[in-house]
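Task: sequence design from structure.
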């Protein structure tokens, strides 16, 4: 019984709270604003990936000396 309530609480959190801003974007009529949000997320991910690769290369160079 408790496990069932935990899974229902997790389900409620993600469907009603965490994804609420994405539901607002989904029901917009403005195609440009929706895609701008996606591009901003892609740019953030590319910057984070580039930074991560730079850190890996730095630690790799430090370890081989």
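Answer:
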């Amino acid at each position: 019984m408790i496990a069932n309530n935990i899974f229902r609480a997790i389900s409620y959190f993600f469907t009603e709270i965490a994804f609420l801003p994405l539901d607002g974007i989904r029901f917009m009529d403005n195609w440009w604003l929706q895609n701008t949000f996606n591009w901003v997320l892609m740019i953030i991910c590319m910057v984070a990936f580039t930074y991560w690769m730079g850190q890996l290369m730095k630690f790799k160079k430090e370890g081989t000396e």
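The chain has one domain: 2-64.
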